[in-house]
Amino acid sequence: MTAAGATPPDATPAGPAPAVRPPDPERGLRGIMSATLLLQAITVLLSIPVAVNTGREVGGVGVTLIVLLAVAMIGTCALITRPWVITAIAVLQVLNIAGWVLSAWLGIIGIVFLLVWVAILWMRTEFRRRQAAGTLPSQQRPTPPADPPAGT
């Protein structure tokens, strides 16, 4: 039982409707970019044992540089919505390939992920081109169903 004039606990108070966030068509692409950065950071960290045990015998400074590169990649995930993030990702790719000085495997990882980033950026460019042209499937109007033939 409720007192006179009191609203029941399950009733919603009248007021302005909550603001609905407009759809962001590039949200999924930013998720792919963040996931790629995380996978690249994990791969870079997994290169530490290889760099230490083969070839040039990377010391503490080299391991620290590799860890800093991976931390920078993880940190860039938080900045993926910024307009300058593509430049930051390009710098990280150059640093990863420059890791060839420490270990050839680190440079090879950089080249492989450079190819992945080229593909992602191509998809982003193609998406934006199609969006501007209005040819994305989500931008097409549904066709009305055909009328059934007469006499059926």
Describe the structure.
The protein has four helices and no strands. By secondary structure, it is an all-alpha fold. The protein has a domain at 28-131. Helix 1 runs antiparallel to helix 2, helix 1 (27-53) runs antiparallel to helix 4 (104-133) and helix 3 (85-98) runs antiparallel to helix 4 (104-133). The N and C termini lie far apart (58 Å). The relative contact order is 0.12. Pfam families: DUF4233. Residues 142-152 have a biased composition (Pro residues). Residues 1-22, 133-152 are annotated as: Disordered.
What order do the helices and strands come in, and which of them pair?
Layout: H1 27-53, H2 60-77, H3 85-98, H4 104-133
Helix pairs in contact: 1-2, 1-4, 2-3, 3-4
Write a compact overview of the structure shown.
The protein is mainly alpha-helical. The chain has helices at residues 27-53, 60-77, 85-98, 104-133.
Instruction: Report how far the terminal alpha carbons are from each other.
Output: 58 Å
Q: Largest sheet at a glance?
A: none
The helix content is 55-70%
Number of helices: 4
Would you identify the regions where 5 or more consecutive residues have pLDDT less than 50? none
Structural classification: mainly alpha
Order of helices and strands: HHHH
